[in-house]
Amino acid sequence: MISSERMAMVDRNAAALGVSTKQLMESSGNAVARAVRDRVDAGDRVHLICGRGNNGGDAMVAARFLDEFEVETLLLGRPGTIRTDIARENWDALVASDLPTRSVADSRGFDLGEIAPDLVVDAMLGTGVTGALREPEATVTRRLNAADVPVLSVDVPSGVDADTGEATGVAVDADAVVTFHDDKPGLTGLDADVTVADIGIPDAAETFVGPGDLLALGRDADSHKGDNGEVLVVGGGPYTGAPALAARAALRAGADLVRVACPEPVAREIQGYGPDLIVRAFDGDHLSPRHVDDLLDRAADQDTVVFGPGLGSDDATLDAVVEFLAGYDGRAVVDADALQVVPEVDTDAELICTPHQGELRKMGGETARDWRERADLVTEFAGDMGHTLLVKGRYDVISDGTDTRVGRTGNPGMTVGGTGDVLAGMTGALAAQIQSPLRAAALAAWANGRAGDSAADEFGDGLAASDLPDRIPQALRDEGV
Ligand SMILES: NC(=O)C1=CN([C@@H]2O[C@H](COP(=O)(O)OP(=O)(O)OC[C@H]3O[C@@H](n4cnc5c(N)ncnc54)[C@H](O)[C@@H]3O)[C@@H](O)[C@H]2O)[C@H](O)CC1
Ligand SMILES: [K+]
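Predict the joint structure of the above. Result:
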């Protein structure tokens, strides 16, 4: 089962792996042809009704595979209004091959003819539908539903929302649907005969985080201050640089406001990093239980809290972590020394834990050399814990116990101290902007590795964690393939 949002990410990841959307359309069209052959006999009449998007494109490909039938390909709209290159190229190929095509500017030109065809292929719209069907699709749909002709829908019956199965307006009442790659939630309730066709998308497009996962980071143009998240970093103690690295990474990953709660000596140092960070010191030189109530107040109106960079593992500090998590019910990234107490804490918080493999074992998790084995172990442990895990390694494994992704970016130079703080800060910022903790953590792992790869291009194994934050914006851009 796959959502249309996730399908778009997987499409993009497939393209980045070298399997272009045009190749996927060719496979989709071939799958449509196979579904046609399952329903009608050689010599029968088949009408393909095409929209102006890639759903239409699928049927334009299918038309090349259906020589044994009497096929007509009908485009709803003028060829110049076909919206994608790959659909238009397939339309042009039909015209150039002198295969029977017709295009109608509106529904007046649409009729099923005196003798209705033996099968109509509905390729007007698929996952690209928005709102109630407009003209000419609406009238064509009504005529189709009124006619007594078998209908095979491509990917989704036109007008039906692939995720919900609902239709805002009219929708094609399909007898059969051939959908691609994986079943769609909106198809389960339909009384149509649904076939799922494999269209050659490599599993890697789903398993490995790629540029498609950036689609989770939709940035609406009119977002204003506070929309892209407020992050509180709680860190510092024996280590002063860690909270600053995490905070700068959060800023560079698009958080609007980043506050740092840290011991006084650390605050003085971070103040030196300039005006971008709002620093709130707490007394003493390490986090203790007496600080927890005030921290819970401050955390209450933040989108995410990044807990742990540089806190150290003093007993009082770990007690404070337990008390904070027991009293916190928001979203938090937990990193470094704070991680070891997570399994014992009963919390309503939505946690993203970012251990390396040593810290995972300290939490009671198991790890393995082979990343596939590690992925299974991490998935199981995340499920047991009820939190999202991002386990860092040559291959990062990210899981919420149900879905699991693997990050393959990064390089050995990143074992230098501090890259984990950058990752924690970026995870906090993305988790403040993306609803799914798993998607936020997967994107953070992938972008952190890309920032590290960019730093390694320049500094080799001499890269420092402080080289990473400024490379995050580029790492979060899809430079296309
Ligand atoms: N990996 C895959 O699953 C692949 C799927 N493919 C097919 O691509 C479509 C999605 O194509 P897309 O171009 O994004 O959108 P559609 O063709 O579904 O529809 C867009 C088209 O429809 C118009 N439109 C949108 N809403 C309405 C409306 N309410 N009324 C009228 N017209 C509407 C819009 O203007 C566009 O013209 C997917 O379903 C698969 O069939 C690819 O083949 C590749 C791989
Ligand atoms: K369709």
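The chain is about 35% helix and 15% strand.
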